[in-house]
Please model this.
Amino acid sequence: MRNTVVLMSCMIIVLSCLFVPRLYGAESRTVELLRKSAEKGDSDSMLFLGFMYRKGDGVSKDLYKAIEWYKKAASAGNSEAMNSLAMMYEKGEGVKKNFREAISWYEKAADAGDKNAMFYLGMIYHQGHEDLPRDISKAFKWYKKAVAAGDSSAMYRLAGMHAAGTGVTTDERKAADLYLKSSNADNVSAMFKLGELYQRGGGVRQDDRQAFKWFKKAAEGEHADAMNALGEIYQQGRGISSSEWKAATWYLKAAEGGQVDAMNSVAAIFAGGAGFSRDSKKAVYWYRNAAENGNVDAMYEIGARHYRGQDVSRDMKTAGKWLMNAAEGGNADAMVLVCEMMVKGDGLSRNAEKGFAWCKTAAEAENVDAMVMLAKMYKDGTGTRKDEKKVALWYKKAADAGSEEAKKALNPVAKPK
Model:
């Protein structure tokens, strides 16, 4: 067992080294004191000497001396030194990069009780490495050991394996238990996952109030996905009173934290003026950010705005780029505009057949505007053969979905049998 008094003394010495002016040159009185303690066999002093030489704190940075002291501490049974050596071999600090040697030191540290090493081994085997194949059973083993040692990050990872059924039978109840333990150890990612489970009733009884509680804790810990979830809860009023302003506030915080769906949501809020005052410039700013980060609906919004010249300059080439990206991402409204642009050859290369294909895909996705357009294309033979039966079929589908234009068009057209 570590000598707590010695450990605290070493920490004080190192802290003094960091903050007291260096009056003794490269090798200060601090180093002399640590060296004397290390020579008497104190592994913590050896560890701190290794740390100081590695970082260049209080001494000239010297990775070779760092390794020398870490190895002495490791030989004395210091698991933190073993873990530090593993990291240096993994990164190639002061030694030739050697992943196998790193694994060997991680395993020694883990066997000596270092929970960080146990967690790192779990991560390495979970993700795999160019020099080490992925091994889920070993990942599970090391995560489980780290959990037993009280590592909250390992609790989170092991919970994820139980939730997804990775290497084990899917068990959301075990996942929920582990997420709760990790959350109680202040792991904000676990808090978010626990909120998700309560929201949908996975492994726990569905409870909107509990979902709100854990999302809020995670959001207060700067978890962007949790902030976005809070925005949705306030917008929908799930388990609490709805509040447009609170929804907007959390969406904005999430967006500023890089949450892409929140960027799209806050853009819609600025565009519509619900929660914040209407601001078209901010709406465009956030739609563009969301689009550039892969949000398909935002791609449509930016493309459609350039198509119409709404709040931005009318630019059919830019519109075509964003609308095509959105259509390829599955946005049916974008498919409709892509169809129009291809038929006209405006902003996209003229190709009526491809335009027809996009329109058909959107119509089959229950887009009413696409149904009406598809009926017209069958009527005029645009991009396809004329087909009065299909004209009637698609007008009827659109009419049944509420299209007034389709209802009027159906009068002179025989209904399909």
Observations:
- Residues 1-26 have pLDDT under 50 and may be disordered.
- The longest helix spans residues 4-19.
